[in-house]
Please model this.
Amino acid sequence: MNTRRPTLRRAIAMLLIACLLPAATATSLAGCGDDTQASKTEIALRLGLAYGSFKRYIYTPAQEGQFKAGVDGRKRAIAKAAVAGAFSARMLQKAKEEADQDPQFAAFGQKIVAAGASFAALNTLLKGGEIDTSAITGGLGSLDSLTGAAKDLGIDVVPKEPSAKDLLTGG
Model:
């Protein structure tokens, strides 16, 4: 009976260590590594989602004339564009928050703010049902400028179309 108890105790101790080790390792490793690379990845993801949603739900429908009065599905296209515009603005806000965490990207954060301002103006137009193609073209120009500036910082932005769930939940 004495030989079983130490074995049971060892098994329980090993089980506890096995359960607690991943949690301790994850928290201790969170502060290690290259945070700049993590920031670049997060910024690239957010900018890619903003660009993809803008292009898919705002720019392309505008080029196809889906926002013109009298076109079938106009209200639906405008509603999608308004949601996508709000999503893009949110992704820009998250990218700015990530840029603010790294001093290397502080100036880039200000460029994100400028692009976000053009999206806010565009969203106001979309929600009102007014579609100004010059504002849409300007929004694309802001995103192109922003992705160019990101590339100069070593951030490779790949446009990515968000899922409908992402649009509705805010990413």
